[in-house]
Each structure stands twice: as C-alpha cells, then as structure tokens.
Fold this sequence. Notes:
It is a single chain. Strand 8 (296-300), helix 11 and strand 9 form a beta-alpha-beta unit. Helix 4 packs parallel to helix 14 (383-390) and helix 6 (184-196) crosses helix 7. The protein has 3 domains: 53-104, no CATH class; 110-263, Rossmann fold, CATH 3.40.50; 279-444, Glycogen Phosphorylase B (Rossmann fold). It is of the alpha/beta class. It has helices at 66-74, 78-86, 90-103, 119-134, 151-155, 184-196, 210-218, 231-234, 252-263, 279-288, 312-324, 338-346, 364-373, 383-390, 424-444, and strands spanning 49-52, 59-62, 110-114, 141-145, 161-166, 202-206, 223-225, 296-300, 328-332, 356-359, 376-380, 395-400, 411-415. It contains 15 helices and 13 strands.
Amino acid sequence: MTGEDSIVSTAPRTSGSVPAGAGDGGGDGANTAAGGAAAVAANTTAGGAAAADAGAGIWHETPIDAAAIATATIDNDAAAIATATIDNDDAAIATAATTAAIAADPRPRTVVLQQYAGIGDLIWHIPYFREAARRSRGGRVSVISQPSTLARELLAHEPWIEEVIYYDHRRRKHDRATPRRHAGFPGMWRMARELKGRRFDRALFFTHRPNRAVVAWLAGIPRRSAYGFGWLQRLFLNEGPFIKPYRGPSLEVYRNASAFAIAHGLCAGPIVPKMTAPPGVVERMRRFVSGLPQPFYAFAIGTSEPGKQWGKQNFAALATELLRQGNGVLLAGGPAEDGLACEIEAGVPAELRGAIAHLTKAHILESVAALSLARACIGNDTGAVNLSAACNRPAYVVLGARKLIDHDPLVHMLTAPRLSDITVADVLGLIRRTEAAEAGASLSG
C-alpha cells in the first residue's frame, strides 16, 4: 500500500490467474495512467482550484481565479457576477457561491490533529474528525497527521476535508535517516508558522503531547483544546474539558480519542470507524481480482515492527489450506513486502499458485478497495486489518500478547502469550466458527 504508485497502470503482479492489465480502463477524478501515478480524486488542474458544490460535496475543476468572483459575491458586485454568468462558467459561479457561504458561516475554522504514525491510528480518529467538521466552518476541517499515515491519499476524496497538513517531525524506527522538516525546536517553529498563516480559529488536538499544544500556541490559534493529561500541556491550552488517560487491557489510542470527542460534544458515545473507497477505484479493483477464485481472502502480511510478524511459513501454510478449499488469496502489503509476498507464494504447492495475486505496489485507496471486496482480511497487527473492518469486512488479526483491538465487532483477535504460539489451525478454527455464526444469524434473520 502506497500513496504514490498505482498498480493499475502496469500489469498486475500475479501468479497467473489475474489477467495482466486487468485495471486498464476509465479513470476516476484525476487518476492518471501516464507515468503510473494515481492521483485519486485530486480533481485539480494547473493553476486551478478544487471547489465543492454548495450542499452537494461535488468537486469541480475551476481553472480560473475564483477568489475575485467570490469577493464580488460577498460585496454584492452584480457586474462581476454577471460577467461570470455571461461567460457561462458554472464552476466559477458555484465556487463563488460556496466561498461566500463559507465566509458567512459563523462556525470556527478548525484544525484537528492525531499524533500517531500508523494508518490504523488515523482510521480510529476518522469518525471524530468527521463530527468535528460538521461543527466547523464550511462543514470541513484541516487534519494534521504524520506522513506515514498516508492521510492525504486516504482522505483526499472526503468532502469534509479542507486540507491535510503533514507534521513531519519523526519517522518510523527503521527510517530515522530521512530528513524531517519539522524535527526538533526549529521544526516546531516552522510548523507553527505554517499554521499561523492559515488563520485557524480552533485547534482540536487529539493528543497528550505538550509540544503539540506549544505549536498551537505559537501559531496564535485562539481556541486550543487537547487531552490535557498533565500540567505542562495544559499551560498552552485554553479550552477544556480535559480527560483522564485510559488504563485498561485495550489499545488506548481509540479509547482516549473517543473520550476526548465525547467530552467536547462531538458525539454521545464511541463511534465505530467506517470508510469507503471512491466507486471508480472499487470497480477498477473489482476487475483486478476478477480472475481469482471467489471468495478470496486478503492477507495483511506487512508490519511496522518485527515483533508483530507472524511469519512467512505460517502465511504460506494458511494460504495452502484456504486454496485447497477453493478460495483465492490476495497478498496485500506495501512495496517493502514485495519480496515477502514472493516468498510466501513460493511456500505454496506449485499447482495452487495460480489462485494467488499480489497487491504490494498499489495506491492506498486501491488497497482499501481490494479489502472491501475480500471475504475477510487475515494478518498481522497492522493498518490493513483496521482498513478491512472500516470497510465492513471481517478482520482476523494475529495479535499475540499485545493490547486488545476491540473497537469494532468485525475485528476478531487471536491472542496468546507469544505470537509464535498461534497456529494455522487456530486461525482456521476462528474463521470457521465466525463464518458459521454469521451464516446462522443470516438464516435466523
């Protein structure tokens, strides 16, 4: 899963059952086949601006400077509006109307932040960011996140997003050599200047980190809220209420985010994260997986930490069993897992390999779409299993002794004192019991 290259611009990497070039065809938004770039739903043109149709969330390409027309609308400059009307520039008129409505909106211009580096961490915050947008100017918010979350790519098509701002202050443990734009105290100053220029009215920061509050304070944002676990962060905040940190067996990220959202009136209770890929992307990936036996299971083979890796031998053995039952298997991950996918496939009997496909060089939204088409996702404690559940597909996560991921009933956990204690038979047994229960519920319903 990546935020750059698209698998559909070249022949898919497969063992043979998925036809080469299966993704060729019509585009979606500004999807570009040339050069292999997938700018999904970017809808931008050189020198232009992307504008939302008032009340409809429909995006238009506006290759002119709509700001002048918007100003004319606000100032009731009939001549300027008439010019746009005479030119029959519907997009410009719509942009002007939208900009005028936003300018008159008394709700605060809001920026939200989530502090963690993982895709799953971002997914857990999405429902609360969406609720914050409903209470913000123009029905939209700007989101601050780390580059490793791929937030720009994941959220580009969402109508409630004004902008995704990357806070590039820290990389993953295996990538510390890459220069960081916002590292250290100079980076904090740089980030604060970037935010100051955007003139936000309110900062809703889903974090307990004092330095994030300092950035909001330096940026001069009038209203500043965050978790406020300690006195140091609270020094730079001016709006409560604050929350207490979650202490329990479950992963604290979602629990703290939920408590903060509830405390600030964004919702009445925890919200299960859900998302969808753009329809055009879903159809493209439907063609990509059409050569696999149906149903197919997606394997989330990647991980950010070696201690979360179930292992290629286990994945190969699990794939073999599912393939023998007549299912397809999709090996999903990022470019770093391309070699691992090949090793897993090599561990499967040769006569079964034709029912395996690889998805390791896809745009992140293509991965989301593929997961939404799978019977279920099985894999390590990684972003893909959370994406699967967010797309309303069952997710089986080989968890070991890590904290519970119990925010969604579609996430089924395999726990044990050690990750190596979890066997292929354990995974197959949980899948069999879960699917039998689903079938029983469907019949009784």
